[in-house]
């Protein structure tokens, strides 16, 4: 209401309400190397571009004469009822997105302001305990990059449990970092200096492994990351992952229906259909185009989705195609860069407001109704 009626009555929003406007504003505001890191993808960014453009060949058919005066956008996930179907995807080094270096805390405060869960990355700049504390009553998820050292994996997961995170999201597609020309051509990240990835650098197990306080520079940061993480996970590791926690385990990066089936058979509690926003492998098919097959294979198992969501209508399309919850990455990062917690909250609220309005106009009072109707693929 605030954004919509404000806009209609000539009260300009503090930040743009659409992705193109947001990105343009962020482009002008962010330091060049930070912008490259956030905005960039793999190779010539075919997959990243396809992720967003593929939403244009899916459409929702409107229904009329349905009472949509009240909409219910809540979803059930991991035994909780969440007020909205949106969540913030994990973004490593989010700290840099705000001037004070505490972007993770700002994102957590945006979660507290909106009720939209945040997924804290293994590579958060602030310790996951501080990030969780800033979320207030809004639930959060912890994203695990699996370390080669099993004790470190155990330590990170147990810290996440103790901090109150509600699920462990294991990222499968990043045991090596993708071919990202924007970063490779200019990996000088001056603003990274002094911004320690303290979530894992302060981990008690990690500190016993390195034996001394790590140096706070980019090269050490990158090389330490590469040496510490990058365990090559296979299906044989599922019993071990399962043994680490009683929290729901979500496998992130699944785009093939056979992998979805295998994940569920191996004990995963949810599937996360994503291609990392096109940052890990170029040449891949848009994630939204694989979502229907993954949803069909998953059956009653929840399917989280991200990659290319840029608007409320994209959110609605992903839900219509069967996603249980929909994640965004770059959009809220730009919000953080423009206005910290308030900026990120504005981005999330704009996405939700547009999705809600679409459901109102198109005759879908609930997400279940939207899902039942589905989306049509355009010729
Ligand atoms: C990411 N992503 C990511 N994923 C993950 O599992 N752990 C991480 O630490 C990161 N870090 C990260 C940094 C940056 C700058 C970006 C843009 C993305 C991927 C992220 O979780 C998500 O899959 C994509 O961002 C979704 O695509 P969109 O919404 O950015 O198009």
From TrEMBL:
Alphabetized, the UniProt keywords read: Flavoprotein, FMN, Oxidoreductase
Record lineage? Bacteria, Pseudomonadati, Pseudomonadota, Alphaproteobacteria, Sphingomonadales
Name the domain of life. Bacteria
List the InterPro entries: Aldolase_TIM, Alpha-hydoxy_acid_DH_FMN, FMN-dep_DH, FMN_HAD, FMN_hydac_DH_AS
Family, per entry: Belongs to the FMN-dependent alpha-hydroxy acid dehydrogenase family.
Oxidoreductase is among the record's keywords: yes
Q: What single Pfam family name could you report for this chain, choosing any that match?
A: FMN_dh
**Residues the record lists as binding glyoxylate:** 37, 145, 180, 252, 276, 279
Q: Would I find Flavoprotein among this entry's keywords?
A: yes
Q: Which GO terms describe its molecular function?
A: FMN binding; lactate 2-monooxygenase activity
Q: Tell me which PROSITE patterns the record gives.
A: FMN_HYDROXY_ACID_DH_1, FMN_HYDROXY_ACID_DH_2
**Broadest EC class assigned to this enzyme:** oxidoreductase
Cofactor(s) the protein requires to work: FMN
EC annotation from Swiss-Prot or TrEMBL? 1.13.12.4
Query: Any idea which residues are catalytic in this one?
Result: 276
Query: Which residues are FMN-binding?
Result: 90-92, 121, 143, 171, 274, 306-310, 329-330
Its recorded name reads Lactate 2-monooxygenase
Domain FMN hydroxy acid dehydrogenase, which positions? 11-379
């Amino acid at each position: 209401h605030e954004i919509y009626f404000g806009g209609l009555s000539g009260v300009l929003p503090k930040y743009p309400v659409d992705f193109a406007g947001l990105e343009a504003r962020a482009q002008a505001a962010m330091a060049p190397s930070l912008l490259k890191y956030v905005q960039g993808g793999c190779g010539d960014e075919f997959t990243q571009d396809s992720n967003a453009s593929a939403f244009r060949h899916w459409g929702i058919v409107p229904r009329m004469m349905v009472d949509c005066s009240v909409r219910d956008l809540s979803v059930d996930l991991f035994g909780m009822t969440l007020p909205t179907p949106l969540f913030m995807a994990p973004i490593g080094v989010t700290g840099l997105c705000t001037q004070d270096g505490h972007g993770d805390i700002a994102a957590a405060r945006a979660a507290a302001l909106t009720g939209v869960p945040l997924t804290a990355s293994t590579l958060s700049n602030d310790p996951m305990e501080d990030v969780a504390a800033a979320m207030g009553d809004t639930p959060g998820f912890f994203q695990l990059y699996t370390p080669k050292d099993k004790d470190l994996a155990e330590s990170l997961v147990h810290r996440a449990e103790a901090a109150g995170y509600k699920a462990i999201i294991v990222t499968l597609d990043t045991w090596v970092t993708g071919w990202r020309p924007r970063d490779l051509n200019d990996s000088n990240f001056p603003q990274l200096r002094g911004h320690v990835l303290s979530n894992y650098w302060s981990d008690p197990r990690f500190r016993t492994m390195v034996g001394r306080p790590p140096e706070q520079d980019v090269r050490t940061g990158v090389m330490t990351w590469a040496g510490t993480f990058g365990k090559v996970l296979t299906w044989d590791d599922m019993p071990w992952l399962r043994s680490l926690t009683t929290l729901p385990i979500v496998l992130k990066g699944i785009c093939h229906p056979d992998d979805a089936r295998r994940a569920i058979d191996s004990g995963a509690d949810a599937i996360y259909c994503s291609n990392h926003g096109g940052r890990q492998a170029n040449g891949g098919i848009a994630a939204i185009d694989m979502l229907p097959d993954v949803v069909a294979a998953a059956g009653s198992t929840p399917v989280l989705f991200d990659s290319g969501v840029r608007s409320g209508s994209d959110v609605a399309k992903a839900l219509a195609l069967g996603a249980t919850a929909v994640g965004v990455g770059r959009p809220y990062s730009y919000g953080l860069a423009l206005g910290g917690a308030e900026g990120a909250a504005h981005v999330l609220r704009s996405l939700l407001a547009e999705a809600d309005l679409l459901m109102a106009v198109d005759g879908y009072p609930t997400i279940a109704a939207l899902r039942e109707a589905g989306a049509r693929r355009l010729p």
